[in-house]
Design goal:
The structure holds two protein chains of two kinds. By secondary structure, chain A is mainly alpha-helical. Chain A is 69% helix and 3% strand. In chain A, the strands form two sheets. In chain A, strands 1-2 form a two-stranded antiparallel ribbon. Chain B folds into two domains: 241 residues, P-loop containing nucleotide triphosphate hydrolases (Rossmann fold, 3-Layer(aba) Sandwich); 189 residues, P-loop containing nucleotide triphosphate hydrolases (Rossmann fold), CATH 3.40.50. Classes of the chains: A mainly alpha, B alpha/beta.
């Protein structure tokens, strides 16, 4: 091209030497690797500590039970991951768990239609679809509030937290639907199998979590939509200018979150074979905690499925482990809070290291054609 | 300006070295700041200018070497320490709180108090008014900074530095958002300050402008001070050749002389001012750009260039008029649909509108053309990689790998990624808003070389700039905009700087001198 662009380095300038730069980098790298794998390390430490403190902790039965508890939260957290990647937050998922459970309860105990004086008993698959639809609808309303009416995600979903809970209480009149087993005569049995049944000895809830995780991973990695979620969360203006349908992406992530919440609601009510309007209170906080412990940034654009699963396991095993070891509930709450804050502190440290590294690279890339082997100076 | 007292050294840096990680940002620099003089620092990004300024103002501490103030060794622990000793800095990035008023920003951290307890708003207001008047900025002290446009915010930033009564005033790119007339005011204020004995250290990428204000010129390259001279003895050529280490000849790219069919046609385009809908940013503007042609939109800030380009890309609504791309009319299309039609924008603010900082080089590069790598509903990793690798080579991004973080690239390379992203969409018309903003001389030449290459390949190129030199050397045709209209079309081969600056309202013709330029900035 022109004479100027071929080399911007001064040929005669002294070089700090590549070897020196690399050793400096390596010492940082060990810390960085430890930081990056922190959720995994935390989980390993938890398992070792509890295994030492309790003989029953590592029994197959106990591991399955704990993983079953992890599953509800993990499914919620996977939906939450999409919202947080986009740079939002969904506080309504706990209430959506309750509302979708109540919808299942109403339909399974029989839907009274007074004007015709009949009671409808829909089939289980209809119940499941209706329940999922309600959860997705809550997400849709969240999405519309955020995209069309420019309500901040925190406020929109906080509002829906109350609205969905209120709806669940209104529908059920505040009472629990205790008999979700169905009646063979009515042809609506089998709801209990969804959350209570097992496949190959593993509870269905765990299978559903695995399927959801695989699908989420696939969507985020392999579809344009997944890339759009990351781009919108990373820099909405730049994404928009690159032709990303930012509004639709936002709408969809809330619907995904609502769908996941409804799924968790169905699994829980099914396993309990009763639907209570209070079900799922404060679940949103555990879901957010799992996402954050897994290394996702609340500012959006950063996080992945593997991290979310690790985060959900850390939270679940920590809670159950403390119960098994006999630590008082009050201590459990306190410890959980400390773990969450610690996770975010470590995340900040990791980000700082990464930023410094990138700044050094940016300076090097200016003057060096390929590797950081040439004169390197940080950008001003 | 140079008086006998002006040779006094207020501040001296001796053998300053600064190491970040394994890289040397400064390599044993000796530097003097003189009373009553403007010392201008020249150098490409990463040459070490800003690092030295951060050390002088207490933001950073040197790895080795020492600072002297009035001949006494001094250690600056932090910025408060520095400002207590009369050293103030105007940062490259604006550091104002948008939720506070102009007055509260100016007095942030050093509020005037009554009895040490209550803020003395009355005297703060009066002082703010006095400073703003001095800077010829008609603003109420109580205006929220969030309501100001960028140039006004920069004026507030300058006012804040003045309020501290500094002896050494460091200005890092103070004019990047100022209009021509605001720059004039700033330069007048700088002259008043130097006359009063204040020492000014000045950094700017705008070489001509910086040379205009300079008493002394100092050039940095790769962390070392490579040349210094009195401003009266040097010219732009001297600066550039010292900055890049050789002469800057051949900066102008090869341009075509003959063009193809009209690729972009604008007829009577009107665009409302996004921040004030009752006003027009672009007023019945018509323009045709042919395939293979490079047209430069030259004008002051606020002339309507950015609004025009953003409206063409689909970010702002066009109120009336018609736009056609290769004969296809564009009206209600979304941004994505316009990209499909071959209309793509390289935005002015790279960090805000051009890059997704959380993603890799490759992911940024493929973002706008993602749907063309979809096979059976899924992203084909192979197709995407092939496209990205091709793009990285095509625009010559210097990166260790396409999976490296975009923030690990220098400004010039980041800009190349943005251009590469746009080129991967296979555009017919390439729109670029200030494509050389914030990048160094070498990368600038590469960017304009890319523009010329794409024009030779048959693209129509429309770009906006506020640098006269760029307008005259890199385009087939220069269209001068002022107050939302085209005021003049200029053939750069037969024109010169003065003609361009007079046309844009930037420089006033000697015959009709006055303050008519003021209106040109909006």
């Amino acid at each position: 091209m022109t004479a100027v662009d071929t080399q911007t380095t001064a040929p005669g300038s002294p070089s700090p030497g590549p070897g020196r730069a690399r050793t400096g980098m390596r010492s940082v790298d060990i810390g960085a690797v430890l930081l990056e794998g922190r959720a995994f390390i935390a989980l390993a430490v938890l398992i070792v500590v509890f295994a030492l403190l309790s003989d029953s902790f590592l029994s197959v039965n106990n591991l399955i039970t704990m993983t079953k508890h992890v599953a509800y939260n993990a499914i919620l957290a996977l939906g939450m991951l999409f919202v947080i990647l986009k740079g939002g937050i969904d506080l309504s998922v706990g209430s959506t768990v309750g509302l979708s459970g109540i919808i299942a309860g109403v339909l399974l105990e029989g839907l009274q239609i007074e004007s015709f004086d009949v009671v409808l008993y829909p089939a289980v698959w209809v119940v499941v679809l209706a329940s999922l639809a309600i959860g997705t609808l809550v997400g849709f309303i969240n999405g519309i509030l955020v995209t069309r009416f420019n309500v901040a995600p925190f406020i929109a979903t906080l509002g829906m937290l109350y609205v969905a809970r209120g709806a669940a209480l209104l529908i059920s009149n505040g009472t629990t639907y205790p008999r979700l087993g169905g009646d063979p005569a009515l042809g609506n049995t089998g709801f209990g199998f969804i959350g209570g049944g097992r496949l190959l000895g593993v509870p269905n809830g765990i299978w559903i979590m695995i399927v959801f995780a695989l699908v989420a991973m696939f969507v985020l990695r392999k579809t344009p939509f997944g890339r759009w979620v990351y781009a919108t969360g990373g820099n909405e203006r730049a994404a928009e200018l690159a032709g990303v349908p930012v509004r639709n992406v936002k709408l969809w992530v809330y619907m995904i979150s609502g769908f996941c919440a409804a799924t968790a609601g169905i699994i829980l009510t099914s396993e309990l074979t009763s639907a209570a309007p209070q079900l799922g209170e404060s679940f949103e906080l555990n879901a957010i905690a799992a996402v954050v412990i897994g290394g996702a940034a609340l500012t959006g654009g950063r996080g992945n499925v593997r991290g979310v699963l690790l985060g959900a396991f850390v939270i679940g095993f920590l809670s159950d482990g403390l119960v098994i070891v006999g630590v008082s509930t009050f201590w459990q709450i306190l410890i959980k809070g400390a773990v969450i804050v610690l996770a975010v502190m470590l995340d900040q440290a990791q980000q700082r290291i990464q930023r410094n590294k990138n700044a050094a690279l940016a300076a090097a890339s200016k003057s060096a054609p390929k590797k950081d082997s040439d004169t390197a100076v940080p950008a001003p | 300006m140079t008086t006998a007292a002006a040779t006094d050294v207020v501040m001296r840096a001796v053998g300053i070295t600064k190491v970040y990680g394994g890289t040397h940002a400064l390599k044993g620099v000796d530097f003097e700041v003189r009373r009553g003089m403007v010392t201008v620092l020249f150098g490409e990004n990463g040459a070490g200018k800003s690092t030295l300024m951060k050390i002088l103002s207490g933001v950073e501490t040197p790895t080795s070497g020492r600072l002297e103030l009035d001949g006494e060794p001094v250690t600056l622990r932090n910025t408060v320490d520095a400002s207590n000793r009369g050293i103030a800095i105007i940062h490259q990035e604006l550091s104002l709180a948008p939720n506070l008023s102009v007055r509260d920003n100016i007095f942030m951290g050093r509020e005037t108090t009554k009895g040490g307890l209550l803020v003395d708003y009355k005297s703060e207001n009066a002082e703010t008014s006095r400073l703003l008047e001095h800077l010829e900025e008609e603003l109420s002290p109580k205006t929220l900074v969030a309501d100001l446009r960028l140039g006004q915010q920069q004026v507030v930033e300058i006012a804040r530095a003045l309020a501290g009564n500094a002896r050494v005033l460091i200005m890092d790119e103070p004019t990047s958002a100022l209009s021509g007339s605001e720059v004039e005011v700033l330069f007048r204020v700088i002259r008043e300050l130097t006359a009063a004995g204040v020492a000014i250290v000045y950094i700017s990428h705008h070489l001509e402008e910086a040379l205009e204000i300079a008493d002394r010129a100092v050039v940095f390259r790769d962390g070392a001070l490579v040349a210094e001279a009195d401003a009266a003895d040097i010219d732009i050529e001297w600066i550039i050749s010292n900055m890049v280490g050789r002469s800057a000849e051949g900066l102008a790219p090869d341009l075509l002389d003959e063009f193809g069919e009209p690729a972009l046609e604008l007829r009577d385009i009107t665009i409302a001012d996004p921040s004030n809908p009752s006003r027009l940013s672009v007023d019945r503007l018509s323009l045709t750009v042919r395939a293979g042609e490079i047209v430069c939109l030259y004008g002051l800030m606020g002339a309507g260039r950015t609004e025009l380009l953003e409206a063409l890309a689909g970010r702002l609504p066009i109120q009336s008029g018609t736009v056609t791309v290769k004969g296809t009319p564009i009206a209600k299309q979304s941004i994505a649909e316009r990209i499909q039609l071959g209309l793509a924008l390289v935005p002015e603010d790279r960090q805000r509108d051009g890059l997704v900082q959380t993603m890799s080089v490759g992911e940024n590069m493929s973002l706008a053309s993602l749907l063309s790598y979809v096979k059976r509903m899924l992203l084909s990793g192979k197709a995407e990689r092939t496209a990205v690798d091709g793009g990285v080579k095509d625009v010559r991004v210097k990166t260790s790998s396409p999976s490296a973080s975009i923030t690990s690239l220098s400004g010039g390379n980041q800009q190349k990624v943005v251009i590469g992203k746009v080129l991967l969409t296979d555009p017919q018309v390439l729109l670029l808003d200030e494509p050389s903003r914030g990048i160094d001389v070498g990368a600038k030449a590469e960017i304009f070389g890319l523009m010329a290459r794409e024009a030779r390949r048959g693209l129509a190129v429309l770009f906006a700039t506020s640098e006269v030199g760029e307008a005259l050397t890199t385009a087939n045709r220069v269209v001068v905009m002022s107050k939302g209209r085209i005021v003049r079309e200029i053939d750069p081969r037969t024109s010169n700087r003065e003609e361009l600056m007079v046309a844009s309202g930037e420089a006033v013709h000697e015959a009709d001198a006055g303050h008519e330029t003021e209106g040109g900035q909006r």
